[in-house]
Amino acid sequence: MKVVETNGIYLSVRRDGTPGGPALVFANSLGTDLRLWDDTVTALPAAFDVLRYDKRGHGLSSAPPPPYRMADHAGDLIGLLDAQGIETAIVCGISVGGMIALQAALDAPDRIAGLVLMDTGFRIGTADGWQQRIDTVMAEGLGELADNIVLGWLSDAYRQANPGAAQAWRNMVARTPAPHGYAGTCAALRDTDLTARLSEIPQPALVLCGSDDPSTPPALNQQLAELLPHARYQEIAETRHLPCIEKPGEVAGLIADFVRETAGD
Question: Which parts of the sequence belong to the AB hydrolase-1 domain (predicted)?
Fold first, then answer.
């Protein structure tokens, strides 16, 4: 673990693999930290240069006062590339991390070589829904929401086969150290609709989605792939919102193939 300063905040980061190899940056979902990708990163080729980080308001990173904008998150990602000496990278983002990746591609197109967009969308949820989530979190914390959140994240089969792991992911949400950081990112989701700008994104994209995702369902991800100029879509069977937890080996294989195609190796 390393801490990097960018945009006036500190981001907790981890870098694995081989510096100078094809660069791949992971952006996390709401309520998770960089541990989300542990098993996926382990299954990736060692030749890749892999960077993970806790976005603002999450994990060990700074949690400045809310609200946050999607442009704030994208600026943090680009600042992180600068701090790590990475000129261009493929960004793999899940859920809000996918929207951060899209925003970064719009704001700094010369820095983003490609996009892996998982269980995400050009708009997620409704403004009223996110405001209700913000109000609940700020008043009560995340404990009351954690069980339902994990139900949406992980399939019944996974939770039954891995009760300890399911409990640990639930604990990650319930014990979020800075609820206002979580709420800040909810505000970014509340205020972001990228529909009209997707045609401006020329980078190649791979859109992945769990077949049973109730939060950002396959139809939304299919539409995202259709609206991007150079994207293809693939489902990951029998998973919900976080296929990188349920089927990390399959996810890693799909990402690795896309990185090789995009990097020309």
Answer: 22-248
